[in-house]
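Ticket #4471: structure output looks truncated?

Reporter: J.K.
Steps to reproduce: submitted the chain below (133 residues) through the standard prediction queue, then opened the result file.
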Amino acid sequence: MKQINVVGAILIEDGTILCAQRGAEKSLPNLWEFPGGKIEQGETPQEALVRELEEELLIEVDVKPDQFEHTSYEYDFGIVHLTTFICILKNGTPKLTEHIEVRWLKPEELNSVEWAPADIPAVEKLISEGITV
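Returned output as attached by the reporter:
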């Protein structure tokens, strides 16, 4: 089975977390995720996250060095290994280029949307522990 290494941003601003909805034409259609993407060869996970957020949302972020959560989930298209990191918005306002919607949600509001399965452990951790920056 194909192994896919991806990173996701737990982007925090004013006590809320940026959540992004996947498009209907993508895999995992209309599910919500922490924005991010695949790690390219030669990149650290943090470098991949900075690059992906610049490409997908046209923003600049600071990525905290330590991972927040790591999950592996077997989808029909492969096994996704998702590592999430706490990020702080440095510059810009998120723009929709690949997602169909973004929402800033408080940790206790995260269950109001339907998450991609690989993201759920990080969601549950945020709900139980809150945000620590």
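Triage note (M.O.): checked the attachment and the full token line is present. The longest helix spans residues 45-57.
Status: closed, working as intended.
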